[in-house]
Amino acid sequence: MKIGVIGAGAIGMFVSAKLSKSHDVTCYVRRDEQRLIINDEGIRLNDQTYRVASKLFDNLKNEDLLIICLKQTHLDSALKKLSENHPDTPMLFLQNGLSHIDKIKSLSQPILIGTCEHGVLRVSDYEVRHKGEGRIYLSAFEETTKELAKERISPIIDGDDFPVIFKDDLMSMLYEKLVINSVINPITALFQVENGKVLSNSHLKEIAYNLTVEGCEVLNLDENHMWKRVQQVAEHTSSNFSSMVYDIQKGNETEIESMNGYLLNISDQELPNHELIYHLIKAKEIM
């Protein structure tokens, strides 16, 4: 299968490398410097090099599948180009948060939505380290694309060391990932610590639990199940830093609006823990 991966951050390079073992993968990037080094050096994942072609996003060509690994903050400009081209190409969106759900409704292409629980660290423009085992969960955006997602895309990209699991319930899948992200990402970003510190530090663990409970109340999820899921992801990616940690370090806009901000916007009740951590992250963004 010819697969185009749009975005070469940590997840984009990780996905490109893993899929290149069985597929013809092209990684689309914004900067020519990154395009050149990936074409020259390949993508280095841990201690192994994977030969992956790279092109500028402006030169997007026909693919059998497009996997969009851009952050929420970079998605708007890409959607305009995607909406005007490749009308029949299936697109799989892998983002944190839920802000993209309303944005992609205008696309006419077959749309799939995914979540990624791997812990991945970007080392350079062509190097990534896999810091925590996880899975890709995938669901259909609409009922009309369910067969495509379940019978064609999911089994084709699934692999022994790259598990891809189809989920029937799209919103349940997204809500679970939203709670996990809204707990781990802002805590680790505020304190600039690895994911595992969310559990090993008793004070951070208390904050994490309270955030989990509030998120579950808004989304009508079982808090015991979700607290186990939060702990599971934090343990499996214990040595990894969340993407929000690096956004704060680099002075970039974070994805807090798509996570805790999303929960605050849809809630009809007070969420004191989410409101506090939301404003703390927004304050860090401008410091």
Tell me the structural class.
Answer: alpha/beta
| Uncertain regions spanning at least 5 consecutive residues | none
CATH class of the largest domain: Alpha Beta
What is the number of helices? Answer: 12
Query: What does the largest sheet look like?
Result: 8 strands, mixed
Q: What percent strand?
A: 15-25%
Write out the strand line-up for the largest beta sheet, numbering strands in chain order: 5-2-1-6-7-8-11-12
Proper CATH architecture of the largest domain: 3-Layer(aba) Sandwich
The CATH topology of the largest domain comes to Rossmann fold
Shape verdict: globular
Name of the CATH superfamily of the largest domain: NAD(P)-binding Rossmann-like Domain
- How many β-strand runs? 12
How much helix, percentage-wise, in residues? 40-55%
Radius of gyration: 18 Å
Number of separate domains: 2
Order of helices and strands: EHEHEEEEHEHEEEEHEHHHHHHH
Termini separation: 45 Å
Q: How would you describe this protein?
A:
The structure is a single chain. By secondary structure, this protein is α/β, with parallel strands linked by helices. The protein folds into two domains: 2-168, NAD(P)-binding Rossmann-like Domain (Rossmann fold, 3-Layer(aba) Sandwich), CATH 3.40.50; 172-285, N-(1-d-carboxylethyl)-l-norvaline Dehydrogenase, domain 2. The protein has helices at residues 10-19, 32-41, 75-84, 99-103, 146-157, 170-191, 197-200, 202-219, 223-236, 243-250, 260-266, 272-285, and strands at 2-6, 24-29, 43-45, 48-50, 53-56, 65-68, 91-94, 111-116, 119-122, 127-132, 136-140, 164-166. The protein has an eight-stranded mixed sheet with strand order 5-2-1-6-7-8-11-12. A hairpin with a 4-residue loop joins β9 (119-122) and β10. α6 crosses α10, α8 crosses α9 (223-236) and α11 packs across α12. It is globular. The protein starts with a strand and ends with a helix. This is 2-dehydropantoate 2-reductase. Catalyzes the NADPH-dependent reduction of ketopantoate into pantoic acid. Belongs to the ketopantoate reductase family. GO terms for molecular function: 2-dehydropantoate 2-reductase activity; NADP binding. It comes from Halalkalibacillus sediminis.
